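The instructor's notes for this session suggest beginning with a concrete chain rather than abstract definitions. Hand out the sequence below and ask the class to guess, before any prediction is shown, which regions might be ordered.
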Amino acid sequence: MQQDDIRDRIFASTLNKDHIGKNASLVGWLEDFRDMGKIGFVTIRDMTGNFQGVVVGEMLSEFREVQRQSIILVKGTIQETRAENFKVEVKIEKMKILSTAVNPLPIDPTGRVKSLMDKRLDCRALDLRNFRISNIFRIRSSVLSLIRKFLYSKMFIEVNTPKIIGSATEGGADLFDFEYFSKKAYLAQSPQLYKEQLTLGLERVFEISPYFRAEPSHTVRHLSEFISVDLEAAFLDYVDIMDIVQELVISTINDLFVNHNEEIKHFENKPAIMVDTIPRTTYQKCLDDLRGLGEKLEFGDDLSDPALKKLGEIYPKFYFITDWPTKLKPFYILEQENKCELSKSFDLQYGYLEIVSGGTREHDPEKLENKLLEKGLNPKSFSDHLKTFEWGMPPHSGCGLGFDRLMMILTNSSNIREVVLYPRDTDRLTP
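After discussion, reveal the predicted structure:
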């Protein structure tokens, strides 16, 4: 058997009754071998699914020597099957071992023997042979494609901003710093300032990229490296951005369940996340609701995890919280004209989980500098940013969407590490 046999292979998911009577080459890893004495049944899996092979005679002896999870190339004839889980089966006539797996393996990739998440993450490449786990990342790829398609349809341009920056912009304390050619540099925690600047000439931009926060959090929803979907648009306000986010979320979910049902059906989450519209409530209304549930919060207090979990009982699906206190938002968020204590801002929640944060930006350079001073920040550190606002900066708004958290919701996962290939947190730096 030569390379041509591999090149002309048939994938498991494409096998059907139209292939009956034809010879075929298939490649995959040996998942199971049931030795019945005079006949054997093998299950071989590839990236698309699995298929059943039947072996007799000398082929039985050959398969008795193959370790499970080894990569094999088989050739045979497609025939009818009595198996309920397969449309057809392969009568295997030739087999070649391409790569042998050790025995025992550190985890059971079939999932029959459960492993702790840390152990699975230590063996992530092998963990992906579990079809349910690999489906998470097929869905992830599909969702990224759907988001890009949607934003392109709204005339957004995809951009790439620096991840190595020279100053601790946004005033964040939770930045990773390092030496950069004898200078101090930082890993970007968001593209916020860059994407605002880009609206000056490109008007509508978005970026899907990793960002970094040195936040010492030990939770199931925080990571040190995460993927964010950021967008910024000139001449739109925060209500317009909410409308875009709502349409993005609903259209992505609908498309996912219609066109990717084979992957998403494994997660049994359709009733929970299917929505036609996303309700909007104000920060003040949240305070009122929480007081009715025994949470004593005053105007200006942030919403704690316990408070958000109680709100999640009232709003168990997606919902927007709008009009946050100005003092709780970054310096670049614009306040409302008639109520300066309120900002033109919103968060998109799913239960207690924050998915999106956004708002209308301050585009007046003088006011922006004053806001920096009010937040205790040095305008000189933002000189490169501030000067762009003197070149005719348009009114603009935007938001950032936590993509990994969205994936938690779509796949009904309780831990963000489940939906990230190689997560980075306070304890994990390898593999």
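Then share the key points. The first helix runs from residue 3 to 7. The chain has 14 helices and 16 strands.
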